[in-house]
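INFO  loader      accepted 1 record
INFO  loader      residues=205
INFO  predictor   begin
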Amino acid sequence: MAKTIKLVFSGGDSGGKTTALNYSAKHLKELGFTVLIIEEFATHFLKAGLSPSLLKDTAAFENTIFKCQLYEETIIFEIADKLARQSEKNIIILIDRGLCGIKAFLNDDEFQLILQEHKLTMNDLLKRYDAVFHLVTTLDGAPEYYKKAHRIDWGREKILKNEEESKNAWLGHPQFKIFPNIKDGKKIDFKEKLKTVFRAVCMHI
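INFO  predictor   done
INFO  writer      dumping tokens
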């Protein structure tokens, strides 16, 4: 029976998650798959001029992101399920930072308040997705590839701390895979990193 496959791309600052998502989408489409994309909501807000510093409330900023992403995910998941039934083919959804990723920007109490507001548990969030691919920030192991994105006011220590918090946000997911920049003491070329992620994607479709 055809189904909807939901894959999350997670990662630290400048880890390559969005690039890997777009790379995977391109190649999946070339293989004939129907691919739907849910873009990162923080990017939309930041481009619009909204930021935690402007709102002076990080928790409120992240809660707004959570609400918007939960709403869009729910709609797209429903549409994808309908398309899968009609076409009798799997529909693939690629998600740029799933809902659990918001946890990396809040303390435990703040995140629990968001879950309570929406009558959800951490396990509810984890079960929404079939697999999670985490791309480690290039600042950790491949600084020559590092490009400051939205975290332009963050120093190295804070970026690396958020990298760990981003990984910890997904602990407990049975299909959580980490893609580092160094393996067996050797640096991984960024193009090879993208190919490795795509091979992992293909294992879930």
